[in-house]
Amino acid sequence: MAREDPSHRAGFAGQVTVGHIALMAIGAYSSAVLSTKLGFPFWIALPSAMVITALAGAIVGIPSLRLEGAYLALATLGLAESVRIFISGTEFLGAAVGYENIPPPYIGNWSLENHRAYYYVAMPVALLGLYFSFSILSSDIGRAFKSIREDPLAAAASGVNVPKYKVIAFVISALYAGCAGSLQAHMAPGFLHPNNYTINEMITLLLMVVFGGIGHIWGGVIGAIVVTIIDDFTRDYYQYRMLMFGAVIVLVVIFMPRGIGGIIDDVLMRRRFKVIRAAKQVPPQRAGANAA
């Protein structure tokens, strides 16, 4: 779910940002506060946290309309660190000690407090997020995103309201990030810490996007799975993990710039051309006989 957040901005709308982890933190702590302080159940805290994160995305997106490329990336990186530092210094949010006793989801009297039971919450939500990603991509909004990514000036000349759709991209990605943060907050052991939202986590998330293919939904899913497995196997070498991840990002950008998604697209395109070529090579008489 978190991986879908940068895809909408970087892949579909062409906005390169590195502040996704801040939006995820906002969603996580919003859901935690709503559950523990106000007594909201998970099923209400989740959409409420998504709305709060979407508002935060709009607040960040509107002033960032004039920023492009590296400037936008630096501004959102500053946002990520500012949110983490704010949480670390706020007693109401647990400060540097962390926020604990976040309740798990309940279905009736059944508590989904272990990871196996929680899977049946996280997986349907992730599949629903994928469905909405495909729906957005094939809608008018998705086509506007693609036009902005290819050439903002040409898109504006064609009647696309570029500022409007850039803000929409921020809001949609914030909704996904808020959902991911809320799911993380209520997962066992029900504990959040500011160190869960550092630049290291941001690099891991970016690696998922780059490895899977920017703007490619299924490739991104595969990239997230592969990077998660690599992340688990390299935990014993934590002091070198970011060095390894950085090297992988550089190598992928050089040798596989379109990621796994690009490879999938190439394979499907070759198959399509083979089918078309085979259809054209059928002799006319045989084609007529088959029709008869």
Question: How is this structure best described in words?
Answer:
This protein has 13 helices and 2 strands. 38% of the residues are buried. A two-stranded antiparallel sheet has the order 1-2. The model has no long low-confidence stretch (mean pLDDT 83). It has a domain at 4-197. The protein is 72% helix and 1% strand.
Please tag this protein with its features.
292 residues, mainly alpha, 13 helices, 2 strands
Q: How many β-strand runs?
A: 2
Q: What's the main sheet like?
A: 2 strands, antiparallel
What is the global morphology? Answer: globular
Write down the overall mean pLDDT.
83
| Alpha-carbon Rg, integer | 22 Å
* Proportion of helical residues: over 70%
Strand numbers in spatial order across the main sheet: 1-2
Write the layout of secondary structure elements.
Blueprint: H1 4-12, H2 20-36, H3 42-61, H4 69-88, E1 106-107, E2 110-111, H5 115-137, H6 140-150, H7 152-157, H8 162-186, H9 199-212, H10 217-233, H11 238-255, H12 259-280, H13 284-291
Antiparallel strand pairs: 1-2
Short description:
The chain has helices at residues 4-12, 20-36, 42-61, 69-88, 115-137, 140-150, 152-157, 162-186, 199-212, 217-233, 238-255, 259-280, 284-291, and strands at 106-107, 110-111. The chain is mainly α and 292 residues long. The chain has a domain at 4-197.
